[in-house]
Amino acid sequence: NAGVTQTPKFQVLKTGQSMTLQCAQDMNHEYMSWYRQDPGMGLRLIHYSVGAGITDQGEVPNGYNVSRSTTEDFPLRLLSAAPSQTSVYFCASSREYSNQPQHFGDGTRLSIL
Amino acid sequence: KNEVEQSPQNLTAQEGEFITINCSYSVGISALHWLQQHPGGGIVSLFMLSSGKKKHGRLIATINIQEKHSSLHITASHPRDSAVYICAVDEKGTYKYIFGTGTRLKVLA
Questions:
Q1: Is residue B49 within 8 Å of B35, Cβ to Cβ?
Q2: Contacts of residue A35, Cβ cutoff 8 Å, sequence gap at least 6
Q3: Which partner from A8, A9, A41, A69 sits 20 to 30 angstroms from B64, CA to CA?
Q4: What secondary structure does DSSP assign to B43-101, as a single string?
């Protein structure tokens, strides 16, 4: 099993550009989530999904969209990049939400100029 | 006030020392997780606890549900233990994990 695969690992964007961060898992996990990690702050939840076709907002959803058309994939879209979205983004998955260990991707380091 | 708080924020130890990192939370939980993040950035799950104590090698994690407190202990610390240790909780009644800000540990040889 590859686990949780995130692409790309690094990306530089200009303000106003859009892009999609990819996340895929091969463990048939129902729960998937996106986080951003900023200096001095804990991981903050952007969006999550409890299964294919079901998504919901986390703590910091503004400026981001998600979809979950398959169990395996959970892409994160930046609609119009802003410098405040410069961060490290992590995707994670678990068999279900509660009482399950989370598996994290390696992260995407995103800079918005 | 953060719902999950860790202490200390930073910790420097000499090789061989016994280390304790603390986590307190203010919400109802189903489980508490201890995670490790190495300088390269990857995050791995160390423990998941809903009661009592777990041990894996030199690492021990305990939780007191009544006091809403957990500790992570490292015995005979080694420079390779240098990392950020993160506490996270499954908040009951939601589908949202809440994370502490992490404890940065440096173990000197």
A1: no
A2: A43, A44, A45, A46, A89, A90, A91, A92, B99
A3: A41
A4: EEEEEEESSEEEEETTEEEEEETTTTEEEEEESS--GGG-EEEEEEEEETTSS-EEE--
Hey, is the C-beta of B33 within 8 angstroms of any chain A C-beta? yes
Residue at token pair 């979950």:
A68
Does B44 reach chain A within 8 Å, measured CB to CB?
A: yes
Residue showing tokens 């690492």: B59
B101 in A contact zone (CB under 8 Å): yes
> CA B102 to CA A39: how far, in whole Å?
11
Query: What are the residues facing A4 on neighbouring strands?
Result: A25
Q: Tens of pLDDT along B36-45?
A: 999 877 899 9
Contacts of A99 in chain B (CB under 8 A): 30-31, 48, 50, 90
Query: Given the structure tokens 């959803």, which residue do they identify?
Result: A61
